[in-house]
Amino acid sequence: MIPRELTIQEASAGLQKKVFSSVELTHHCFDILKKKNASLNAFMTVCEESAMGEAQAADDLIAKGRHARLTGIPFSVKDAICTRGIRSTGSAKILDTYVPPFDATVVQKIRSAGAVLVGKTNCDAFGHGASNENSMYGPVRNPYDETKVSGGSSGGSAVSVATGMSLFSIAEDTGGSIRQPASFCGIYGLRPSYGRNSRYGVMPMASSLDTVGPMARSVADIALLMEVMAGHDPKDATTVNDTVPAYVKNLDAPFTPLRVGIPDEYFETEGMDEETRTIVLRAIDDIQSHGHTLTRVSLPYTKYAIPVYYILVPSEDSSNLGRLDGIRYGVQKQGETLFDTYAESRAAGFPEEVKRRIMIGTYALSAGYYDAYYRKAQKVRTLLCQDFDRVFHDVDLLVTPTSPFPAFGVGEKTHDVLAMYLADIFAAPASLAGLPGLSVPVGNTKGGLPVGMQIIGKRLDESTVFHFAHHLSLT
Ligand code: GLN
Question: What's the distance, CA 197 to chain centroid?
Fold first, then answer.
């Protein structure tokens, strides 16, 4: 019998002790997938045949004692990340038929470590959204309550891990897309520091914010996955050229009491759900009882994070998405003239939210508006970064709710774009500043919906975040 809540570490131990085989473990994931995916809609593409082959190959390696760190562990990948020979659409119709000829660097690293690819997960189109309702292939539903959203944009990844369709997932976070669905689905999700992991092969959204990170069932698993994924990549000039810390070994370093900052602004937001606040505050009390020092801090520019984010991200979007014109990749709608072909391919291939962002971004970058919007937003971004620099003189970490509320109803916010944008209010600031943020599950509402707490670290200091979270979750 394979337990549903298996972590990577437990599964690896089970495989090596021959309690079960990778073929059995992978079968088990597909059993859950077949039972639950029809209603949850977490997967875009399911790779059962190749996965069973990979699992068999993993068992052969284990039998010979030649296993690597992830040998035989089933995983999923967000559909906005390229996988060689496997359809990768970004959940947008314009790439409905796109089959990349290469693996994204992170996927290649995870696969070289022996993991078994179960399939590609549904997401908001090209990562644009906070509920997974902007997928052109239908929303992903929350496994705790199917009338609620999974969160977004990496909702399919979160659901695949939360239900046991895979043991971990690789996803992308620009402004909350890993952390927020992780919190809605009761799992762990890390947005790494900007530049820590390669984005080569990840469909770009906003290049000055995009990151790739893991979603899993424990802090130790997140640390392990980061050790496999992180590091310099000659194919991505934004990756940091240094050695990746020994995240896993550092987890068990002797306990150090830390100075933990609690930013006032993250508890006073309008529209904040009371139960969420109470659950996170209870978790914060627990931090203190573990011997850490709590300090109230202020990040006054937090209130500008959403306006700044929604100028800068659409601006970068409008430029990045220019490459999708129906000529070079994916689906083409033939028009009478070349211009019509571009226009019709884009009209049919992008959902409303993507079109909205392209228009806002093009507007914000155009002559006459550039100074008023784009340049102004860049200046405020700098002030927001300085907020963090200042408080990190006095504290080692910041702790906040991941989201102001738990999973909301499917359809509840789809007609109110601003309400949807506000879902990112606690995730966007760390994104703009390039800081790492880990969402950890800290409880459930009375209605049974998970609530997440976000731990924000100094840039490139994931180690402290992991060490802190690991000690909290262990004791
Ligand atoms: N919800 C945010 C947005 O729509 C986050 C997206 C992301 O992180 N990819 O921009």
Answer: 13
Q: Can you read off the two tokens belonging to residue 29?
A: 């994931």
d(CA 267, CA 122): 31
Q: Give yes or no for a contact between 419 and 409, defined as CB atoms under 8 angstroms apart.
A: no
d(CA 266, CA 298): 9
CB atoms under 10 Å from CB of 81, counted, come to: 28
DSSP reduced 3-state for 75: strand
C-alpha distances in Å from residue 275, one per residue of 183, 404, 448: 14, 10, 11
Mutate to test the pocket of ligand 1, among 134, 174, 420 (most ligand atoms within 8 A of CB): 174
- Measured CA to CA, the distance from residue 102 to residue 126 in angstroms comes to 18
Q: What pLDDT digit, counting tens, does each position of 165-176 carry?
A: 999 999 999 999
DSSP secondary structure of 356-420 = HHHHHHHHHHSTTTIIIIIIHHHHHHHHHHHHHHHHTTT-SEEEEESSSSS--BTTSSTT-HHHH
Question: Is 313 near ligand 1, meaning CB less than 6 Å away?
Answer: yes
The finding on whether 154 has its CB within 6 A of some atom of ligand 1 is: no
pLDDT tens profile 164-211: 999 999 999 999 999 999 999 999 999 999 999 999 999 999 999 999
Residue 139 beta carbon below 6 angstroms from any ligand 1 atom: no
pLDDT at 214 over 80: yes
CB count within 10 Å of CB 313 equals 27
Rounded to the nearest angstrom, the distance between the alpha carbon of 432 and the centre of ligand 1 is 12
Residue 209 CA, closest ligand 1 atom number: 8
**Can you give the pTM of this predicted structure?**
0.97
Type of residue numbered 457: G
CA distance 76 to 173: 16
For 103-153, what is each residue's pLDDT tens digit? Answer: 999 999 999 999 999 999 999 999 999 999 999 999 999 999 999 999 999
Q: What whole-number distance in Å separates Cα of residue 146 and Cα of residue 148?
A: 5
Q: Which domains does the chain have, with CATH numbers?
A: 1-475 (3.90.1300.10)
Q: What is the DSSP string of 251-303?
A: HTSPP---EEEEEGGGTS-TT--HHHHHHHHHHHHHHHHTTPEEEEE--GGGG
Mean pLDDT of 239-260: 95
pLDDT, one tens digit per residue, over 396-408 is 999 999 999 999 9
Q: Which residue blocks in 177-218 are alpha helix, DSSP H?
A: 179-185
- CA distance between the termini of the chain: 27
What separation in angstroms does the CA of 379 have from each of 103, 424, 432, 435, 436? 36, 20, 12, 18, 21
